[in-house]
Amino acid sequence: MAHIFVKQVIGMMEQLLYLSALFDLYGALLTEKQQECLRMHLFEDFSLSEIGEELGISRQAVYDNIHRSQKAMEAYEEKLGLAHRYQEERQELAKIYESIEGLRQPGNEAAVTEVLDRLAPFLGRSQEVSL
Predict the structure, then answer these.
(1) Over the chain, what HEC string results?
(2) I want to staple 61 with a disulfide (CB 3.0 to 4.6 A). Which of 49, 57, 73, 90 is the partner?
């Protein structure tokens, strides 16, 4: 029973991360009200009732806004594929990073470190020097 609960929590977290990524890419294409509702829901962890109170709308209106926003962003992703492409590029860059790290040998440490330092920000890493 606990295993099912853990799976549900992980699924909810993955959904929130996915929506956050879509919001980063497509949020500017939503209406101002949709942006506000999603921002409060995703990043400020407000409940639907709290968002409704804050914005002076019903809980149902908040739900509808969030649901429409999600559908719109998913439609943009289906057409444009930016989130998918971004994920694939990061995975490929991580593989390249690891390949370059494997080329480190005595005498080329500085050159390898320089290349890795340039690549690290694209992976959200800070390069530690490992000589």
Answers:
(1) CHHHHHHHHHHHHHHHHHHHHHHHHHHHHCCHHHHHHHHHHHHCCCCHHHHHHHHCCCHHHHHHHHHHHHHHHHHHHHHHCHHHHHHHHHHHHHHHHHHHHHCCCCCCHHHHHHHHHHHHHHHCCCCCCCC
(2) 57
